[in-house]
Amino acid sequence: MDHFHYTGGALHAEDVAIAEVATAVGTPFYVYSTATLTRHFQIFDEALDGLDHLVCYAMKANSNLAVLKVLAGLGAGMDVVSGGEYLRAKAAGVPGEKIVFSGIGKTEEEMVLAIEGGIRQFNVESEPELLLLSEVANRLGKTVPITVRVNPDVDAKTHAKIATGKSENKFGIPISRARAVYAQAASLPGIRVVGIDVHIGSQLTELEPYRSAFEKVAELTHVLRADGHEIRRLDLGGGLGIPYQHSNQAPPLPFDYGEVVRSTVGDLGCEIEIEPGRLIAGNAGLMVSRVIYVKEGEGRRFLILDGAMNDLIRPAMYDAWHDIIPVREPEPGAEPVQYDIVGPVCESGDTFAKERAMPEVGAGELVAFRSAGAYGAVMASEYNSRPLIPEVLVDRDQFAVVRARPTFDEMLSRDIIPEWMD
Ligand code: LLP
Prior knowledge:
By secondary structure, the protein is an alpha/beta fold. The chain has helices at about 20-25, 35-45, 65-75, 85-90, 110-115, 125-140, 180-185, 210-225, 255-265, 280, 315-320, 410-415; strands at about 5, 10-15, 15, 30-35, 55-60, 75-80, 100, 120-125, 145-150, 175, 190-195, 235, 270-275, 285-295, 300-305, 325, 335-340, 350-360, 365-370, 390-395, 400-405. Strands 4, 14, 15, 16, 17, 18, 19, 20 and 21 form a nine-stranded mixed beta sheet that branches. The longest helix is centred in the middle third of the chain and has 19 residues, at about 210-225. The radius of gyration is 23 Å and the shape is globular. Ligand LLP binds near residues 162 and 237. Ligand LLP binds near residues 58 and 162.
């Protein structure tokens, strides 16, 4: 459930009319709903009720400071994958002991930053990373908590670009090598083993892959404990999918996911961490865009928007579907029209949808992309010298710009002409 709805013939985010935001900030823009973010976080939290747990929001999905502050205020931990994300988590007021650091390419600088600033744990993904972390921690006179991310060789049955739990993927260490790597970790100075980490992919629409992966983690917990390691924490990653096509998709609910967690690893006496990103932020955001032209092609009608692939890259990158709806509520029973919905960027890949049936809209009208709160603004670029679009946060009847559109002067001022050209 989200808090975007038609009221009085016009699309609203909570109690704010989208058209009003468009007039105030210009198009295109992203808009997020505080109530929806809150609800999604709480649903996860409740799904793990009765287990000692921490929901560490995977902020790669949407790392706007205001969004982070909403979640931090609810008690969320954060899953970060870069020094920049670590600094954002800290800036949003999240204490180090609630921040986990994931990712396969942590640099020495990032390790120093997180060790000095405080960290709940590093999720280590390789032996060379383990050695470097030991060296850095030791040099700083600290002992850092770690889990090792194991790759369970499970097919997450999701888009190839976002599956991470198969042995051919670059993530984690093969589960077959886990005992050797844990033995090595236990022998290294500056390292304290606290648990196991696993993450098998993103936009999962079935629970079975989770069950297989968590069963393997449970088995490994027993083996590692028998080897003398203290396994008191399990980080189970993120990845639960959301409906992108609202009319006919119903991915598993967090409650049922919670049941899988309980039935596979619930009796191990471990603290449970999960790292959802998309399910918290995805349906809490829209991208709103204006129709520039309606162009008649050969047997096709193009809806040319002012939003483009640089603003929302998911359709171009993953062939992702986003529901696209008019901001003015369509008349009941209005016949849908077929459009190819495209942006102004100069490549054919800048296509949001082909032969998409939707209510008729005209030039100058607004449309909204649903499910754009995750992996939308964070993946945007300034391709074609198009400024990053603003982000707006709504809370009941108030809204605020939480990241402003840069001016062209700001964009130009980042480029530097070398002295020899003067
Ligand atoms: N934990 C780890 C270690 C991850 O790599 C990810 C996502 C998550 C948690 C959060 O997964 P989520 O709950 O959001 O599915 N840009 C792609 C998605 C990339 C996901 C990368 N890792 C997209 O737009 O679909």
